[in-house]
Amino acid sequence: MARIKFIAGNWKMNTTKAVAVELAKGVAKGAPDGVQAGVAVPFVYIDAVGQAIAGSKVLLGAQDAYFEKPGAFTGEISVDMLKDLGVKFCLTGHSERRHVIGESPELISKKAHAIYGAGLILVHCIGEKLEQRDGNKTLEVCKAQLHELSSKMDDPDRLVVAYEPVWAIGTGRTATDAQAQEVHAFIRAELGRMFSTDYAARVRIQYGGSMKPDNAKGLMSQPDVDGGLIGGAALKADQFLAIVNAGK
Ligand code: PEP
Known about the structure:
This protein is of the alpha/beta class. The chain contains eleven helices and eight strands. Strands 1-2-3-4-5-6-7-8 form an eight-stranded parallel beta barrel, surrounded by seven helices.
């Protein structure tokens, strides 16, 4: 079965409410058939964006979630709260949460299981830093971060892995098509060892790291690149839609 490409915008800590709603409306209006588009929105604008894209093909997403059930966790947002607002997918392990906020692999793993366990689509981000690539540690790092997942995640259609080399995020420096394909093929093979080959064949593996309208087609034409996780270029509806269309 062919994998439907999934292209998600990660808005990070950007936009105002008005900008978020306009952007969401623009994306919803232009989202084509034949490919899945989604937007991972700052918590405080999820409700407004959910209303702006209601009835469209665009999936509503969040950038983070806490793993505990609702309770005394000041400042945190639960998976149940996200579901209440109509969220369909949620990120974990983004490099900014790993390396800027300082989340540990243990915390990321707990969050991943809570998101997946609640029935949402999990977009689990992995990727090496520049010094790790230079030290030939790329596959080792990706393998360790993949193993934050477990065989309890038995529905491959709700598991998405985003390969995001840290040195390519927000830098304008993209992995070449061949560099991306090499790591994506490794990720699929490792998922095959962790789950099964049939399972791995159904998991979508997104590429993220300075994906733009002019490099999206080449990257998404690679056999194991099943979409993109888009930061900067997701903040303009026309640019984001150009990338989404490149995935058709
Ligand atoms: C990201 O943060 O997930 C990302 C890929 O950012 P950018 O597209 O700006 O490199």
